[in-house]
Model the fold of this input.
Amino acid sequence: SQTIHQWPATLVQPVGSPLSLECTVEGTSNPNLYWYRQAAGRGLQLLFYSVGIGQISSEVPQNLSASRPQDRQFILSSKKLLLSDSGFYLCAWSSSTGGNSPLHFGNGTRLTVT
Amino acid sequence: AQSVTQLGSHVSVSEGALVLLRCNYSSSVPPYLFWYVQYPNQGLQLLLKYTTGATLVKGINGFEAEFKKSETSFHLTKPSAHMSDAAEYFCAVTDTGRRALTFGSGTRLQVQP
Done:
């Protein structure tokens, strides 16, 4: 069966420090991969998605970047964190076979920028 | 462009009462619709989905939703609420032209004993 791992679970970082969140998927090949952010009391905002190695689509301009160095690995990064980067970050995967494939989410990383 | 509106950011019901969480969508093409549940500090778990075929969709934990094209709605219901249903619920939409889901802002369900 497929599993998705996301780490760390919680992170407290000072303003201006770098960020690296990692997500890996097991049990499937060539998944679509996603990063969402959930701010307190708000819905989910799509940040990035990837349909293959090295292929990244950015949905909103921001202080973050994403990379997909391997088929089942998706990394969210920042060179210098802002206070507004605080939130709950969720990685997800879906089958690449069609638009009706549901997303499967990791357990999230709660990032607090101080 | 797609969008999802969830009416009511907070809904409170008594244990054993009917649960009704509202979702309306906007899509220029036939949509695929989903409901997810999120427990505190966890990721989202798929409850059910509508793609094609039967408009009444049954999901996990006794939840179901009905796709009504004329009303552009996909409301989530459960006949009898349990305490364990307390969580946040998200409606989401996509279509054949997109790879990512667009989510509503969520509805927090509180179940009173």
User: Anything to note?
Assistant: The CA atoms of residues 25 and 72 of chain A lie 5 Å apart. The mean pLDDT of chain A is 91. The radius of gyration of chain A is 13 Å.
